[in-house]
Amino acid sequence: MAMKANELKKSYIDSQEKQKMLYKRTLLIVSISQIFGGAGLAAGVTVGALIAQQMLGTDSFTGLPAALFTLGSACGAFIVGRLSQRFGRRMGLTAGFITGGIGAISVVIATITNSIVLLFLSLLIYGVGTATNLQARYAGTDLANKKQRATAISIAMVSTTFGAVAGPNLVGVMGHFALSIGVPALAGPFILSAVAFILAGLVINIMLRPDPLMIARMIESYKQEHEHEGKLETVDYLKNKRGIIVGGTIMVLTQIVMVAIMTMTPVHMKHHGHGLNEVGIVIGFHIGSMYLPSLVTGILVDKIGRTAMSIAAGGTLLFAGVLAALAPSDSMVLLVIALSLLGLGWNFGLISGTAQIVDSTDSSSRAKTQGSMDVFIALAGASGGAMSGMIVANTSYATLALSGGILSLLLIPVVIWSRGGSKESQRGLDV
Question: Of 16, 64, 138, 337, which sits 20 to 30 A from 394 (CA to CA)?
Answer without folding.
Answer: 337
